């Protein structure tokens, strides 16, 4: 059963942080304190969160998946302007440690932001990090499986909301693949993600590896019978693409926007 909490009134320890395994939550003050397998991320800490030194908390696993702040802000910009003003709710299906959720909240564009995360400890990090950015009160944090939550708790809301999803990119070598086979992305392939989300929502954004197979994405447009063109945008940092977003459904872009 998913649990929902707005941090609006959470002045002390929130219900979400009470469920976290605090042994897994860290704010590292030096690279020597980090486990070896994540030390390579130390020099990227301010790219991930410009307020890192204010006490950003992450699980060791979360370091791999956080959307870098400039990228998250640019995506939030694009979402702010490409969706009609009448749509005021956005759902971040894989909130992780809060990278995208915080950027969406900082944009000030959305009346309701839902952040869904399956892992209680990671969700507690997201809530804490959102608090550091002063936006925790604008976010409803939901612990649960996003597919269940969209079919259940948020069923009536999702129809007129934007669904944003940055799923795990596990699977055979997305880093090495020249063209990444999205049907083999684990644990959720393109079929599961696009299929489930477009069944319940008219506007879906998938944040995927930069090497994703665009033919598979184009194939999904036909398969879903979408009348709108599918937009794919590369998001770059330091001159190279970090990831793409696939915009499925009714978005309208200013073609000059970069
Ligand atoms: C790539 S990370 C998301 C990172 C996030 N966008 C950020 O910037 O911090 C993917 C997250 O999805 C969570 N997750 C995996 N399956 C899930 C599911 N079915 N429902 C909700 N969360 C899930 C994982 O625990 C992980 O934290």
UniProtKB/TrEMBL annotation:
UniProt catalytic activity: a 5'-end (N(2),N(7)-dimethyl 5'-triphosphoguanosine)-ribonucleoside in snoRNA + S-adenosyl-L-methionine = a 5'-end (N(2),N(2),N(7)-trimethyl 5'-triphosphoguanosine)-ribonucleoside in snoRNA + S-adenosyl-L-homocysteine + H(+); a 5'-end (N(2),N(7)-dimethyl 5'-triphosphoguanosine)-ribonucleoside in snRNA + S-adenosyl-L-methionine = a 5'-end (N(2),N(2),N(7)-trimethyl 5'-triphosphoguanosine)-ribonucleoside in snRNA + S-adenosyl-L-homocysteine + H(+); a 5'-end (N(7)-methyl 5'-triphosphoguanosine)-ribonucleoside in snoRNA + S-adenosyl-L-methionine = a 5'-end (N(2),N(7)-dimethyl 5'-triphosphoguanosine)-ribonucleoside in snoRNA + S-adenosyl-L-homocysteine + H(+); a 5'-end (N(7)-methyl 5'-triphosphoguanosine)-ribonucleoside in snRNA + S-adenosyl-L-methionine = a 5'-end (N(2),N(7)-dimethyl 5'-triphosphoguanosine)-ribonucleoside in snRNA + S-adenosyl-L-homocysteine + H(+)
One protein family per Pfam: Methyltransf_15
Entry's Gene Ontology molecular function annotations: RNA cap trimethylguanosine synthase activity
Transmembrane segments: none
Alphabetical keyword list: Methyltransferase, Transferase
GO cellular component, one term: nucleus
Protein name: Trimethylguanosine synthase
Organism the protein comes from: Myriangium duriaei CBS 260.36
């Amino acid at each position: 059963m998913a649990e929902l909490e707005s941090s609006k009134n959470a002045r002390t320890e929130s219900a979400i942080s009470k469920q976290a395994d605090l042994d897994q939550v860290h704010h590292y003050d030096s690279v020597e304190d980090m486990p070896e397998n994540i030390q390579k991320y130390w020099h990227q800490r301010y790219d991930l969160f410009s307020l890192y030194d204010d006490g950003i908390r992450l699980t060791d696993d979360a370091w791999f998946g956080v959307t870098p702040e400039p990228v998250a802000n640019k995506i939030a910009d694009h979402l702010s302007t490409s969706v009609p003003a009448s749509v005021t709710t956005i759902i971040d299906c894989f909130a992780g440690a809060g990278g995208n959720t915080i950027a969406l909240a900082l944009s000030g564009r959305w009346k309701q932001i839902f952040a869904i995360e399956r892992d209680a400890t990671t969700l507690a990090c997201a809530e804490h990090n959102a608090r550091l950015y002063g936006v925790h009160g604008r976010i409803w944090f939901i612990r649960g499986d996003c597919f269940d939550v969209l079919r259940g708790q948020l069923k009536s809301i999702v129809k007129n909301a934007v669904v944003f999803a940055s799923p795990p990119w596990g699977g055979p070598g997305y880093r090495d693949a020249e063209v990444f086979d999205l049907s083999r992305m684990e644990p959720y392939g393109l079929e599961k993600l696009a299929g489930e989300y477009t069944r319940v929502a008219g506007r879906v954004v998938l944040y995927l590896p930069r090497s994703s197979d665009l033919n598979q994405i184009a194939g999904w447009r036909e398969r879903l019978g979408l009348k709108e063109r599918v937009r794919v945008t590369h998001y770059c940092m330091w001159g190279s693409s970090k990831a793409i977003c696939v915009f499925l459904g009714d978005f309208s872009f200013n073609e000059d926007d970069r």
